Amino acid sequence: MDFLVKLSDGFIGMFQAGAETFVGFLTGIIPLLITLILFINALIKIIGEERVFGFMQMCTKFFVLRYTLIPFLACFFLTNPMCYTFGRFLKEEHKAAYYDSTVSMLHPIVGLFPHANAAELFVYLGVAQGFAKVGSQSELGLRYLLAGFVVILIRGVITERIVAILSSRDKKKAVNA
């Protein structure tokens, strides 16, 4: 009988903990995310969508910017999943690598800019709570973002090269057919 009581207490306790977390989100992170999203949308309107898009198109000419700055800005300004639409500024042979870089940026950007991928925030906050015991969450977020830039550049360049190799193979097959 004691086992059943502990089991039922644990079962309901799980939902009570979930409810406490939910209330914490409603009074903490959700208003923050809404405010950040409103700010970013206002900033885009103030700068002008044409200027933002023109700048992005210019940046696509340089591979370092194509696989670092553009994914970062796309995630920052458009958030997930709209950030993938910036791929329209790239040549067809660069789109797969851009997508790979952008997908990889969605995790590290959350530490400093939680509005960019709100769904990922809950995973990051779990890691950050443990890190907060030995360091600052801002330090973790910055290190996470800097490491992310290195990773997305490497992934973008490698993916671009793989796409080029596979495309050349397809062209050879088409010529021989």
Automatic annotation (TrEMBL):
| Entry keywords, A to Z | Membrane, Transmembrane, Transmembrane helix
Q: Name one GO biological process term.
A: phosphoenolpyruvate-dependent sugar phosphotransferase system
Transmembrane stretches, by residue range? 22-44, 64-87, 144-163
In the UniProt record, which is one GO cellular component term? membrane
Record flagged with keyword Translocase: no
Task: Tell me which InterPro entries the record gives.
Answer: PTS_IID_sorb
List the PROSITE patterns hit by this protein, alphabetically: PTS_EIIC_TYPE_5
Query: Is this entry keyworded Methyltransferase?
Result: no
From the Swiss-Prot or TrEMBL record, give the protein name.
PTS sorbitol transporter subunit IIC
